[in-house]
Each structure stands twice: as C-alpha cells, then as structure tokens.
Amino acid sequence: MTYVTHLECSGCQRRFPSEQLWNLCPECSRPLLVRYNLTRIRQDINKEMLRHRPMNMWRYREVLPLKDDQHLLTLGEGGTPLHHARQLGALLGAPNLYLKDEGLNPTNSFKARGLAMAVSRAKELGAKTLSIPSAGNAAGAMSAYAALSGLSAFVYMPADVPHPFIAECRALGATVTLVEGLITDCGKIAARRCQEEGHFDVSTLKEPYRLEGKKTMGYELAEQMGWQLPDVIIYPTGGGTGLIGMWKAFQEMEALGWIPEGHRPRMVSVQSEGCAPIVKAFHEGKEHAEVWDNAHTIADGLRVPGAVGDFLMLGVLRESGGTAIAVSDTEMLKACQLLGSTQGIFASPEGGATLAAYQKLLQKNWIDKEEKVVLFITGSGHKYAHLWQESLK
Amino acid sequence: MTYVTHLECSGCQRRFPSEQLWNLCPECSRPLLVRYNLTRIRQDINKEMLRHRPMNMWRYREVLPLKDDQHLLTLGEGGTPLHHARQLGALLGAPNLYLKDEGLNPTNSFKARGLAMAVSRAKELGAKTLSIPSAGNAAGAMSAYAALSGLSAFVYMPADVPHPFIAECRALGATVTLVEGLITDCGKIAARRCQEEGHFDVSTLKEPYRLEGKKTMGYELAEQMGWQLPDVIIYPTGGGTGLIGMWKAFQEMEALGWIPEGHRPRMVSVQSEGCAPIVKAFHEGKEHAEVWDNAHTIADGLRVPGAVGDFLMLGVLRESGGTAIAVSDTEMLKACQLLGSTQGIFASPEGGATLAAYQKLLQKNWIDKEEKVVLFITGSGHKYAHLWQESLK
Fold it and tell me: CB–CB of A106/A80 below 8 Å?
C-alpha cells in the first residue's frame, strides 16, 4: 500500500520510478524528492481520522513512502512534546513562545525521524549495508535503526567529535571510522567506499527518504497547534533537511486541505558564527552557498561547511519571507542555560542556538513579541555534557 | 479534583491527612503510601475511556494525587514504547520477550515519572525549595521539574558520579553539592540541611508521591499489553521504588476491575554483584536488608547500599513468587552491547542488567523460554558514554 507516484529531481525536474534505490539525480546530481498522489490521499483520509492513531511519526503513514508495513522500523520516533514556554516567555515578554522538544526522540535527536524512514525504506528496497557520514547525531540514529533492521552499518565521523557520539554508535553495533577533517571529508570517504564496496549511502538529501521522515515534524507541529501554523519557525540548519522537510510538509498539507492556503510561517535558519554559509549566501542574495573555510563551532550539527541542499534551504527562506542569522558559541551556551533553568529542558547547543537567534531577532524587531514562534530544540544536551565541564569546577 | 482519601503508613498503618507535606511516618519512620477512593474511581471511569487521552503518564490522572491541574508539571514523561524484542528473542530462542524503553523519558530515565509527580505535588502543597540525594538520574529529573516549577533545587551526589549527571543538573539550574561517599552519605547531608534550612526532601520513598509517578509504569505496561500482565517482570532495583510502585499499580488495577485478579507477574529484582543487599536478604529469608559494605558498581543507579523501602521490595518479591539475582558489571556491559546491536536501544548498565539477569534465569530454568517476560530498560546509555571509552581505542 503506497500513495507514492514517483521521484522528482529538485534540480532538473526529471521523474524517476520509486521502487528502486536511488541516491542523487543521475542526470544533474541534485536531491530527488518523493511525490504522492495527494488527490487520492485526500479522498481516502481526512485529518480527523488521525486522532485515534498512536502518537508517533507513523500516524502520517499515507504520506510516508513505505510500501509494506513489514519493513516498518520503529523505536518510538516522533510524537515529541510541544511546550508553551510560559516561564521563559514571561521573562522575555513573549507570551506566544513554543518549544518543540526533539530531544525526546530515540537516540536523543530529530535525526531518528529521518533515519527510521530511510533505513526502513532501504531495507524494503533491498539494501544490505548502509553507510553514513555524520557530524554525530545522524550516526547514532542510523546505527540504531540499522541494528533493528539487521543491516550492517558503517559510520564516518570527524575524529574530534565528542566521544559520546562515538560510544553510542559502537554500543549499537556500527563500524565507526574516524576521519581527520570535517563532515564534508567524511562524506568523500564514505562515497568512495560506497562505490568500492556496494554500501548504500544514506547521507542527508543524497537519498530521497530521510527528508520524508523529517517532514513529519511539520505535520506534527500543525496537528499539535490545531492545524494553525505559527508565525515564525526558528530552526538550526546544518544540512538543512529539517527545514526543507517541514516546508514540503506544509505544501502537502495545503494540497490535502489540512491547513488553509497562504498561512505558512516565516522560516528562520540559525547557524554558528564559525560556520554560516547559508547566512552569508542568504544576505548576499545568492542562489547557492560557498563552502565555508575553517568551519568551527561547539555545535557539531552545525559544523557543515557545504550542504547539497543549500539552494533548497535558501529557496524556503526566501519563499517564506524568512531570514538567516548566525549566533556565537557563547550565545548558544547561555541560551541553553536559560532554557534549562526556566523550562527544564537540557538542550544541545544547536537547540540553544534557536533561542539565541530568537532573542536577537526580537532586538532587531524582526519578530514582534506577540507573534507565535516555535523554537526547534533538535536534540538533547546529554551527548554534549563536556561543554558543561567548565562550570563543574 | 482528587480521589485521594488519606496517606497510610506502610509500617504501622496509621492514617495521615493528605493535604499537607509529609516525609516519613512521624510515628515509625516508614514510607507513607497514598490511598484513593477506588470504588468511586471505578464508578466514574473505566479503562476504555483512557483510549483517547494523550499518551503520557497523566492519562492515569484519576489515580494520581494532584488536586489542581494548574500545578501539573509535564515535560512529556511516560508513554514510553514497549517493544516486542523479535531479533533478540530469536537469538535467545525466546519468542515472548519485551523491552520497556524508559530511556525515552525526559532526562533519559524513568526517574522523570516520579519527579514530575513529586515536584508537582510539592509545589501544590507549598514547598519552596527542594532537596534530593541521588546516584545520578533522579537528580537530573528533579532539577528539570524544579526548573519548570520555579522552585529552587539542591542536589547531593557522590563526588565520583560520571560528569554528565552533574552537567545535566547544572544546565538545569540546580545547586549541586558533591559528597565524598555514597548515596547514603548524600542522604544524611541532605537530611541535615533540610532540617537546618527548611528545604523539602524528595528522597525516594521519603515522601509519598514519587512512588505514585513511578507506579504509572505498571498502568502503562498493562494497557500496552491489552490489560494482560506478563508472566515475569525483571527490574533493576536501587531504591526499589519502581518495583514497589508497579506492584501498587497492580493492586489498584485489580480493585478498579481493569485487570483480572490473581494474574500478577513474578517480580524479579536485579542488583549488581558489587552491591546486592536485596539479593542477599531475599535468599537469606530476611525481612530487612543489611547495609552493604564497600558498595561498588558501574551502574550508579544500583549503588544503593541501604534502601528505606527494603522490606517493601522483599515483600513484593515474595508475594509475587519472584526472585532476586545479582549480575556482574561485565555481564551488564555485554548485555548492553547485545541489546544495542540487536534491538537498536542504547541502554544504561542498569537496563543491561535486566537482560543479563534474564539470560541467567533462563539457564537456571527459573524462566521458561516461552514465558512472556518484560525487561525494564530504566534509562538510556547516553550519560554512561565513558563506559564505552575502552572500545573507542
């Protein structure tokens, strides 16, 4: 049972059949997107029917690309809480501030959504061995679902990634290779080994299905807000698949009649001052981002100097009337402390970055204090405990 | 709105009014238990009515002791997945093995349930400052809910607790005191400071409400299994409140007519070979456990040499026809690796201990391979990444 009709290239718009494994578009090397028969879905279900389904990402089963449920891998991904941040909001004079806590996903980050989907689908389409370059959280998530599926997992991470990320992958049975360099260097080595050994590459946006898992954040947010999207969404972007995925969800939900047309949020990309290629490209009016030299930040998920989906992210920011903003590592940590001490959420620095960005955008009057704003806390701080060692003395 | 009738001492059975703050029984220093008008609850709701409630622990609102919902603190605790462990089961020849993954709670452990309840109720009853001695996970959970409630949090942990536990508490705004010694030493210092400074002590079983939060594991398990309890539950016991709480839930559910009478599981307590007071007392036929000398184990949650609820734990084990068993640190870690690589769950050593115990009890033929068994993975491995450093080289 699937409503998928085909895959469509985000660059050249060529169509490809969905029932085989693909990476990037074989014609133009851009990401492939999954397309559905939304008209038929609209006839078959309505959003009220969701109400009695289990609260995890598979409640949006019709807009997910798996054919046969026997391949569905679940560890409880999705269904994360959306909190009205009353105390933090009171402190900032912002009565309509919300937090989406993705740290409650399996493996402690939103990456679980994308990889539950991608690994399920890879298994369904016959992959035997999976490979991923990762700044950290994606590797843990891939290792978990690979273990559950029985597929072998090869993980490539920067050698200086904090050891909890490595520990997690090893405990989950993955083969970990540490690479001197950044995630882009990991990507090159992973790609070469995939070619040599026939592993399937589940790099973000280099296969079509992680995006589909991540888009469930958009569906879930809409449902949790009573099918009324907020005014602004602030999201930390490394590869940017979360942001791009939510935008795709909003398009689909409009077509399904689940949300009113023309009321989408302004989308904000947050990056680190030490690695802000999207921020730079956005403000320079460029369609693509240049690779960032000497990328450095404590937020490993944001240490992505070049992203294959750069033009898609920039497109979403512009189409939505959004913006892009960089924050410093110190600002991220201060924001984490503020989040923790007012709302009881121990956020990763990427999560803290959204609050730091929100504070800056309030100051600039780019956001009004009355506006309904959602900050995505993309992961928990537990794998980043080393950042708090300073304060331990 | 509350169905609470009174508090009852687990030692001398004296009754106390519930609408004020209590620690241990003022007469005999035993834990106080919350009693409800179960007859009235039975008239007012039935288990079918739960079906459409949000999947978190507050779905069992009628059997939770909060009076006014305005004090209800939630970060998304409860509603954790119950997995049928098909791959692991296949490997062990055990087709009916289940895992309850409590690592998906806020702050990564089952402690969130007890402390969401205790802090909500402490706030409702007028506490201003909270205090907790903890081996690690309880401290993080208390810090989170204290932050959310706006109450001040004082945390006392052994000085040699892994630093992620300390980092989490500090990021959540708690005041952390490191104590040379074990959790029992922390407890003494916390108790003294509570007396001196009027802090409210939320030590496990030293106030009546953490038990009520933890008992929701029992309600949830029953509901997830279609109101049929398993044959055996294996649970890692430090303070033992999880085990005692589930047993209380089973009693209540029988009185409510939610589960059939006389079909409760055999309850198994797992401890570490380096700290096994309950195992020793159980097999020696004692009613109370002696304090364990020189307690040591990598599983911080099991490093509890003496527990105020020892006689309650021992009572549950005996009444249920269960047992108590110790496993070594090495066995725990091997079991964690097995869990991770077959089921994709990165478990804390306490969680791994349940699998190690299961394997031993199969070997002894104490458990039959066909029996329906639930292992409680009480927390995730993310705060224990240092244990995997060995394998990082």
Answer: no
Higher per-residue pLDDT: B354 or A391: B354
> For A336, which residue in chain B has the nearest alpha carbon?
B171
Q: With the C-alpha atoms ordered A255, A253, A6, A51, is the resulting torsion angle positive or negative?
A: negative
Q: Does A340 touch chain B (CB under 8 A)?
A: yes
pLDDT of residue B389: 80
Question: Radius of gyration (Cα) for chain B, nearest Å?
Answer: 19
Domain extent listing, chain B: 82-109+211-391
Q: Tell me: the pLDDT tens digits for A209-241? A: 999 999 999 999 999 999 999 999 999 999 999
**Of A243, A242, A235, nearest in space to A271 by CA:** A235
Instruction: Please name which of B207, B196, B191, B199 lies closest in space to residue B174, comparing C-alpha atoms.
Output: B199
Structure confidence at residue A297 (pLDDT)? 96
Cα gap B280→B275, rounded to integer Å = 10
Report residue B123 as tokens: 């706030």
The H or E element spanning position A154 is strand A152-158
Contact status, residue B95 vs residue B79, Cβ threshold 8 Å: no
- The structure tokens listed for B292 are 């364990």
**What does residue B77 show for φ and ψ, rounded to 5 degrees?**
-70, 145
pLDDT for position A43: 97
Q: What predicted TM-score, i.e. pTM, was given to this entire model? A: 0.97
Mean pLDDT by 10-residue block, N- to C-terminus, for chain A (393 residues)?
Answer: 96 97 96 98 95 94 97 98 98 98 98 98 98 93 98 96 95 96 92 94 96 98 98 97 98 97 96 98 98 95 94 98 98 98 98 98 98 98 90 46
Q: In 10 A of CB A198, how many CB atoms?
A: 11
∠ CA(A233), CA(A237), CA(A239), 5° rounding?
A: 135
- Answer yes or no: do B75 and A83 touch at CB < 8 A: yes
pLDDT at residue A393, rounded to an integer? 41
Q: Which of A147, A344, A389 sits opposite B340 (nearest CB)?
A: A147
| Beta pairing partners, B324 | B269
**Maximum CA pair distance of chain A?**
61
pLDDT at B391 > cutoff 60: no
Beta bridge partners of A52: none
B172 closest CB neighbour out of A105, A170, A341: A341
Beta-sheet strand order (sheet of A82-84): A82-84, A97-101, A373-377, A232-236, A266-272, A323-327
Contact A171 B140 (CB under 8 A): no
pLDDT in tens, B367-390: 999 999 999 999 999 999 999 886
Q: Which of A152, A342, A345 to mutate to test binding with chain B, by most B CBs within 10 Å of its CB? A: A345
What percentage of chain B has pLDDT greater than the value 70? 99
Mean pLDDT of B98-119: 98
Nearest to A388 among B167, B340, B392 (CB): B167
> According to the model, what pLDDT value does residue B1 have?
83
What letter represents residue B22's amino acid?
A: W
DSSP string, B275-294: B-HHHHHHHTT-SSPPPPTT
pLDDT for the residue B392:
44
Torsions phi, psi for A257 (to 5 deg): 75, 20
Name the pairing type of β-strands B200-201 and B232-236: unpaired
E strand segments, chain B: 4-9, 15-16, 32-36, 82-84, 97-101, 129-133, 152-158, 175-179, 200-201, 232-236, 266-272, 323-327, 373-377
CATH class of A82-109+211-391: alpha beta
Amino acid at A272: S
Helix (H, G, I), strand (E, B) or coil at B3: coil
B80 touches chain A (CB under 8 A): yes
CB contact under 8 A, B87 and A166: no
Whether residues A140 and B388 touch (CB distance < 8 A) is answered with: no
A139, A165 in Cβ contact below 8 A? yes
Tokens standing for residue A44: 């078959």
